[in-house]
Amino acid sequence: MRASIFVFLFTLGVVFGGVLQNSLSDEFINKINSLGTTWTAGRNFDANTPRSHIKALLGVKPRLGKVLPVKREKLGAENLPESFDSREKWPACASLKVVRDQSTCGSCWAFGAVEAISDRICIHSGGKFQVSISANDLLSCCGFDCGNGCQGGFPDAAWKYWVENGIASGGLYGSNDGCQSYVFAPCEHHTTGSLSPCGESQPTPECTRKCDNSTLNYNDELHFGESAYFVDSHEDSIKAEIYNNGPVEASFDVYEDFMHYKSGVYQHVIGGYEGGHAVKIIGWGLEDDIPYWLVANSWNEDWGEKGYFKMLRGSDECSFEDSIVAGIPKL
Predict the structure, then answer these.
(1) Which tens digits make up the pLDDT trace of 289-324?
(2) Per the similarity annotation, which family is this (predicted)?
(3) What's the domain count of the chain?
(4) Any idea which residues carry the catalytic annotation?
(5) 310 with 294: CB under 8 angstroms?
(6) How many Å apart are CA 26 and CA 31, to the nearest integer?
(7) At what angle are helices 108-124 and 235-245 packed, to 10 degrees?
């Protein structure tokens, strides 16, 4: 039954795969919902949102080849649960429950990395070390090797930088959490919510290698990785990696329909390619017999399912399973 559903939905994607005239229009949203797919669309972004703002949120640059080794985490499929949520296995780790906001900067590549790294430091220390790793420090100080800051970067290079150079502690904008907080304030990307409008995309912050709080020493606040790697793209290998070691960073191809995700298990059905995006996978499950990955986005809690979404699992939807990155912290 499930296989026939996928074939039917793939056919819909082929038939309706062209770009509609205005991908933020009510017509576009209604078209998605008329197809009877596995998810529900609704308005997240105002119909007049500049295309440049949408593009600026998608900060994963294309790359040829891989700069990290590939690891296959071993755990028999029979030992993996049907559903899993990292927040439930490691409830003491506060970072697992935080949805960040990349604001007006194409820093998703950095956010996906520091979010998963923060979680893994807590998980691998048995909850002893609760730290937020600074998106700002990674974004501003990992230069050419990582890409181009707010204009996009490479998730694998972010993890490599963590191993070789370390990343300072630091939390959300204005939080005074750790060494270096994010410099861009949360903003209202969406049609609902109480935040200020986002405005134009911002330039990459300057790398300072110092802490906001003068009582903290930057070098003392650096956290390093023991290893960094791509995770083998086999579904069970990805699940085993998350189950054993914690959340991972995924990058994938974003199409126009994704911007309207509200609930259900996302798969691309209509609209053109928009760019590459990076997110954090925290678990998996089934919804109406449809397998999904449970994913945290970085567009604040007003988007999707309170900042989260479910991505179709097991078929490399939108190349989602092809570029999973992770690592082990040095404690």
Answers:
(1) 999 999 999 999 999 999 999 999 999 999 999 999
(2) Belongs to the peptidase C1 family.
(3) 1
(4) 108, 277, 297
(5) yes
(6) 8
(7) 60
